[in-house]
Design brief:
Length: 150
């Protein structure tokens, strides 16, 4: 298993949790973004910069992810691609996307896109809070214990 991060929109506090986990588990962590991303020095942590443009990082992750890998993303279409390839997808709030819930999430996303396109202000997600960070860390630990091999 390796961990891929859709890093353009990933909160720094979540990246910090991932950095610690990668070092602790001695597991490769790759942050993919269309801008430079600062990471601590580690043989397990690397960055991959892609061209600027809408969904470029998502496309690159979808190309590279392998069965059993973990992808951290809030992008639901990317999560669906990851699940279709046999990977695991976790959002920065700690919600694990699965075969059982991804279609519902895609439908809701598409509905909200339609609402926004018609001029309805739908608002954005609430700011990440301590509970979200804890839920992410707990879910990450469960996934790494179950699938990470250490």
């Amino acid at each position: 298993m390796q961990i891929w991060v859709d890093a353009d929109a990933c909160p720094n506090v979540i990246k910090d949790i991932l950095f610690r986990a990668a070092r602790r588990m001695e597991m490769r962590l790759t942050l993919v973004a269309n801008q430079p991303v600062r990471v601590p020095p580690s043989p397990y942590i690397r960055t991959m910069q892609v061209a600027s443009g809408f969904d470029e990082a998502d496309r690159r992750i979808a190309e590279l992810v392998q069965q059993g890998d973990l992808v951290v993303t809030a992008d639901i279409p990317l999560a669906a691609d990851v699940i279709d390839k046999g990977g695991h997808a976790l959002n920065p709030r700690g919600e694990l996307y699965t075969r059982d819930n991804i279609r519902e999430r895609l439908t809701m996303r598409d509905f909200m896109d339609t609402m926004r396109a018609s001029g309805v202000h739908t608002g954005g997600p609430a700011p990440l809070d301590q509970g979200d960070r804890q839920m992410f860390a707990n879910q990450l630990d469960r996934l790494l214990r179950r699938y990470g091999g250490t």
